[in-house]
Design goal:
By secondary structure, this protein is an all-alpha fold. Helix content is 60%, strand content 0%. α2 packs antiparallel against α3. This is HTH psq-type domain-containing protein.
Length: 57
């Protein structure tokens, strides 16, 4: 049976928050030029990363 609906990666992967923070730092430093580039490189949620970058999450 597939995962439960609404199950968050942050609750199943202890390093997910670290990856999100790294993506935010990389965007600030210019390592990744766009949110989508950081998402592809670090395998994090596009919506969550966008929300964090825009201080809406």
């Amino acid at each position: 049976m597939p995962g439960k609906r609404g199950e968050l990666a942050s609750t199943t992967d202890p390093e997910y928050e670290t990856c999100l923070q790294l993506a935010i730092d990389d965007l600030a430093e210019g390592t990744h030029k766009t949110v989508s580039a950081a998402v592809k490189a670090l395998d994090v949620s596009c919506q969550t990363l966008s929300d964090r970058v825009n201080n809406t999450h």
